[in-house]
Design brief:
Number of helices: 10
Distance between the termini: 35 Å
Structural class: alpha+beta
Low-confidence stretches: 1-26, 466-477, 481-508
Strand content: 15-25%
Order of helices and strands: HHHHHHHEEEEEHHEEEEEEEEEEEHE
Helix content: 10-25%
Largest sheet: 7 strands, antiparallel
Shape: elongated
């Protein structure tokens, strides 16, 4: 779903309405920087935005800001705040998990789709993917605040994740069993009616919190139940397993209600910590899902355009955590010819992120050159080419090479942004793999794919354990190893002779 900006004037007009909303319906992990400070985190810290920012510090600021906006969108009292599955309220576990999966996989329709569809390398829309990703992160984070998952053993830190995989979330079956760090929990969802002979009783934790559910008579043998906080008439837990949502900004009902939205609520810190790790896990899941469905040309979009040039996108404790390799490969860019600068009004102000990464996303290196004025049909001057990169791997066939690009449409600021008046244009970049030591031209988005907006000459060398490789020598496939345009481009020759192209190289 595409997000829409919240109109502050509209919110001002509805402020009296917000004030009348029941607090039990107006909560999730708290938000920061809310319009007019409504339902804002105590001290304006410790909410969804801080959690996301701290979990994903390796993203470009503009990308991260666009993701953070979606937390306010999901908690808009006139919109998604009251949809229970978006917040794992009312024990709607299947709804919440299906929502997360759909945010990843929805096809692009009328210009809007799920995260993966927006990374289509033939028509990349990375600033649309931020919307869907931010929205699903909100839901994934709320699971830990709005259910009793954490409350069963809060001393077990870090709290085991509900779903730590790299594929789609596993949809829990109503009255099926899920494992929480060695504890089998019955998914208590569905009251029309629950399985015959099964009974539920809300009981207290050792510290006196009425947030646990005892189960008796279920064929699985599970004796404890997973429930979400209830409000209104949509609760899907039967009466014996119902625990109210509660007021997230007060401890007055902390002993008898569910939420862990702010730091005045018991087990907030444990819920916050687990949600932050889940956020890191979603980054890794997103990369793997995109690669599995679009190929590595798709995952190259976030790896190059979302990640800051100084970023380290390999969170510890996830499947994408850094590991070391025994072999090293160096890739140099010998030339870049711009086939389409995407700028209809003259030369593009182009920026080129150059990245090497492993197919399992456990390590990457990157560099970037910025603010280079080049028009279609011309070469990037050699003095402004990205510097060579070296990546260590255990299996040389795990190497992914990508060069992406964007055109600064709001001036040569070298900042990848989505300013509504004139958003930056994304070029169709190239993604390639290890063919053996070679020099060759890459003109396609990915081998066997559509034509790129760039024609790139790559030199690939193996720096260690070369005895395991054949051929040993670097073989050339006849790249244009020059910044001079093809002879047929007379105007290009004149341009390179007289424009005095300017650029700035940044080494990370």
């Amino acid at each position: 779903m595409k997000s829409k900006l919240i109109n502050p004037l509209g919110l001002l007009l509805f402020t009296p309405f917000f004030a009348m909303l029941p607090l039990s319906k107006a909560q999730a992990f708290c938000n920061q920087n809310t319009p007019f400070g409504l339902f804002q985190c105590p001290g304006n810290t410790g909410g969804h935005q801080d959690m996301t920012r701290n979990a994903l510090p390796f993203l470009r600021t503009t990308i991260l800001d666009d993701i953070l906006d979606e937390h306010l969108f999901q908690d808009n009292p006139l919109g998604n705040l009251n949809i229970d599955y978006i917040h794992f309220d009312n024990s709607n576990f299947t709804g919440g998990v299906n929502y997360i999966n759909n945010q990843y996989t929805d096809p692009r329709v009328a210009g809007a789709g799920g995260v993966i569809a927006e990374f289509d390398p033939s028509s990349p829309q990375p600033f649309d993917a931020t919307d869907e990703f931010g929205q699903l992160l909100h839901t994934a984070q709320d699971f830990y605040s709005h259910t009793n998952w954490v409350d069963y053993n809060p001393a077990n830190v870090p709290v085991p994740l509900f779903d730590s995989g790299t594929g789609l979330w596993t949809v829990p079956a109503p009255y099926g069993v899920v494992n929480r760090g060695g504890i089998n929990l019955l998914v208590v969802q569905g009251n029309n009616p629950p399985p015959a002979g099964v009974t539920f009783t809300v009981v207290a934790t050792p510290t006196g919190l009425l947030r646990l559910v005892n189960v008796a008579g279920h064929p699985s043998g599970a004796t404890q139940g997973l429930v979400g906080g209830a409000y209104g008439s949509g609760n899907q837990a039967p009466p014996g397993a119902t625990i109210g949502h509660g007021d997230g900004f007060s401890a007055i009902d902390d002993l008898t209600t569910m939420n862990k939205d702010t730091n005045v609520r018991t087990n907030y810190a444990q819920a916050y910590g687990a949600a932050a790790v889940q956020t890191e896990t979603e980054w890794c899941r997103m990369l793997n899902l995109t690669a599995s469905r679009l190929g590595f040309a798709g995952s190259s979009i976030p790896m190059a355009l979302w990640v800051d040039p100084n970023g380290n996108p390999h969170p510890g404790g996830t499947a994408c955590a850094i590991s070391q390799g025994s072999k090293s490969v160096q890739v140099s860019i010998k030339s870049i010819k711009v086939l389409n600068d995407t700028d209809p009004f003259g030369a593009g102000e182009l920026n080129f992120p150059f990245v090497l990464y492993r197919k399992d996303f456990t390590k990457s290196v990157r560099t970037e050159v910025n603010s280079i004025s080049v028009s279609s049909g011309n070469f990037v001057p050699k003095t402004f080419l990205p510097l060579p990169l070296t990546l260590d791997l255990n299996n040389l066939n795990d190497l992914v090479i990508t060069l992406q690009a964007w055109d600064d449409d709001d001036g040569s600021d070298a900042v990848f942004d989505n300013i509504s008046i004139d958003p930056d244009d994304v070029l169709k970049g190239i993604t390639d793999f290890f063919p053996g030591p070679t020099v060759r031209t890459v003109k396609l988005i990915t081998p066997g794919g559509a034509k790129s907006d760039l024609e790139v000459c790559l030199e690939i060398k193996v720096l260690s354990n070369r005895s395991n490789l054949a051929p040993q020598q670097v073989e050339s496939e006849g790249c244009f190893d020059t910044e001079i345009p093809e002879p047929s481009s007379i105007f290009g020759l004149l341009a390179f002779g007289g424009l005095g192209l300017m650029g700035l190289r940044k080494k990370r």
